[in-house]
Amino acid sequence: MKISKDDFVSGFVPNHNHGSVDYTSVADGHVHQCLDVTSPPIPTEDGSHIHYTEGYVVFEHGHKHAYKAYSSPAIPVGNGMHVHYYDFHTTTDDGHSHRVRGVDMPAPGNK
């Protein structure tokens, strides 16, 4: 069975990932855009899963910041879809860091 990003599925869907588009917190008078795609799922002991991500925020204000983070476990949002919450800080560059938090785009599966 082939599953697309818009399919509603009960249970766990292996090898999926999530994307997100967000902005950092304001620091030193500016923000950065954070465009992200997660790793495939990492199973957790409770039967759920998390995702790992790393990358850079968009170059703004003459510099960039890196990040490495893990998501929350899957959060079912109905109709056979789920999301993950994320909350992390970037590296300190140019004398400051930024916080990034939010929810990624829904993916198939409710676990």
Looking across the biggest beta sheet, what order are the strands in? 7-8-11
Uncertain spans:
none
Distance between the termini: 18 Å
Helix content: under 10%
Radius of gyration: 15 Å
Any idea how many domains? 1
Shape: elongated
Largest sheet: 3 strands, antiparallel
Strand content: 35-45%
Enumerate how many helices there are, as a single number. 0
Q: What do you see in this structure?
A:
With 111 residues, this protein is mainly β. It has one domain (19-108). It is built from no helices and eleven strands. It has strands at 19-23, 33-37, 42-43, 49-50, 52-56, 66-70, 75-78, 81-83, 85-89, 99-103, 107-108. The strands form five sheets. Strands 7-8-11 form a three-stranded antiparallel sheet, with no helix packed on it. A two-stranded antiparallel ribbon has the order 1-2. It has a two-stranded antiparallel ribbon with strand order 3-4. Strand 3 and strand 4 form a beta hairpin. It is elongated. The two termini are 18 Å apart. The mean pLDDT is 93.
Give structural attributes.
11 strands, 0% helix, YmaF, elongated, mainly beta, YmaF family protein, two-stranded antiparallel ribbon, three-stranded antiparallel beta sheet
Topology of this structure?
Blueprint: E1 19-23, E2 33-37, E3 42-43, E4 49-50, E5 52-56, E6 66-70, E7 75-78, E8 81-83, E9 85-89, E10 99-103, E11 107-108
Antiparallel strand pairs: 1-2, 3-4, 5-6, 7-8, 8-11, 9-10
Please give a quick description of this structure.
With 111 residues, this protein is mainly beta. The chain has strands at residues 19-23, 33-37, 42-43, 49-50, 52-56, 66-70, 75-78, 81-83, 85-89, 99-103, 107-108.
